[in-house]
From TrEMBL:
It is an enzyme of class 2 (transferase). Its cofactor is Mg(2+). GO terms for molecular function: (2E,6E)-farnesyl diphosphate synthase activity; metal ion binding. Keywords: Isoprene biosynthesis, Magnesium, Metal-binding, Transferase. This is Farnesyl-diphosphate synthase. Belongs to the FPP/GGPP synthase family. GO terms for biological process: terpenoid biosynthetic process. The keyword Glycosyltransferase does not apply. It comes from the Bacteria. InterPro entries: Isoprenoid_synthase_dom_sf, Polyprenyl_synt, Polyprenyl_synt_CS, Prenyl_diphosphate_synthase. Its EC number is 2.5.1.10. CDD domains: Trans_IPPS_HT.
Amino acid sequence: MKRDEFDTWSRDRLEQVEAALERWVPALAPAGLGDAMRYGVLDGGKRLRPLLVLSAAEAVGATDSEAALRAACSVELIHAYSLIHDDMPCMDDDVLRRGKPTVHVKFGQAQAMLAGDAMQALAFEVLTPEDDSVPLALQARLCGLLARAAGQDGMAGGQAIDLASIGRPLDEQSLSDMHRRKTGALLQASVMMGAACGDASPQARQALSEYGAALGLAFQVVDDILDVTQASSTLGKTAGKDADQNKPTYVTVLGLSAAQRRAQTLREQAQAALARSGLPDAAWLSVLADKVVERDC
C-alpha cells in the first residue's frame, strides 16, 4: 500500500479525532481548568494512539464508528494527562512538550495537576455516553482495557519503576519490563480497543496483542535513540533529558548501534504478528509499525 494513500487516510481520521476532542474537552471548565486541559491535548502530538485504535478497528471490520472514535479520543486523553503529570517538577521536571511550554510552566503546578486529573476522568466519560450510541457491554470492555493499561500494572506502574531506577543500573530485561508498562501498555491497549470495536477471531486478537506489544516497545527504543541523536527543536521536547537525570535507557544499557538493531528486530516481530493475524485489511497497521521505527521525532 502506497504511503501517500496512508497519508490521505490518516489525515482524514485525524481530522475526525481533532474535531471530536475539540467538542469533548470543555473550554468552560471552572476557574480556567478548561484552558489548561485544552492546552495540554489540542493541536499537538503525533496522535499515534488514536491512529492505532482506528486502524485496528478497520482491520477487524468494525462497523461501530462512534465507539472507535470515542476509544481513539479516550486513549489520547489518557496519554496527554500522563504527559502533563510526567513533566511536573516532582516527576521529570521538564519545561518543553510538543514544541511549547509544558502545562505546569504555562498554568502553574496546581492547575496542571488538576488538568491531568480531569482529563483522566474525561477519558472514561467519553467512553460511556449516556445515550445508546455505544452498547453497554462494549463500553465496559473498552473501559477495562484502558484502565488496566493506565494503572498500576501499566503506565502508572511503569512510571513508578522509572522514578525508582534513577541512578541505578538495569539490565535489558528489567528495562524492557519497565517500558512495557510505562509506554507499551497504552500503545498495546490502543490496538486492542480498536479490535474490540469489531469482530475478530481469538487467533487474530492474540496476534494483534503481540503486534501491539512489539510496537509499544519499539516506540520506546526509538524514543531513547532520538533522545541522544536529535535536537530539542526537532523533538519538540528537551533532548538529552534522560542522560542528564542519570536514567537507564536502551542506549545506555545496549549502546546506540545495538539499540538501533533492537528497534528493527521489534519492527520485524510486529510485522510477523500482523501477518499471523490473517486479517485482510491490516495495511495501515503495517505502515504504522514502519513509521514508529523510521520516525525522526
